[in-house]
Amino acid sequence: MNTNKVPVVKARSTVEIEYKAMAFLKLTYPDLLKKPAPFPGAGFFDSGKITEILNYDYGIENLNDAEAYTDFDNKRLVLNKNVYEGLHTGCPRALFTLAHEISHIILHSNEIRYRIFNNCQLNKLNRSKIITYRDPEWQANAGAAALLMPWPTMLNIIKEKKLNLFEMATKYNVSYTAASIRMAKYDEYLSKKKPPAYFGGLTSC
Amino acid sequence: MKFGSYIRKIRENSSLSLKEVSDKLSWSVVYLSDIERGRRNPPNKEKMKELSEILGVPYNELLDYANKEKDHIELETVNKSENVTDLAYALARSWDKIDDNIANDIKKELSKIK
Question: For testing the chain B interface, which of A51, A52, A57, A60 should be mutated: the one with the most B CBs within 10 Å?
Answer without folding.
Answer: A60
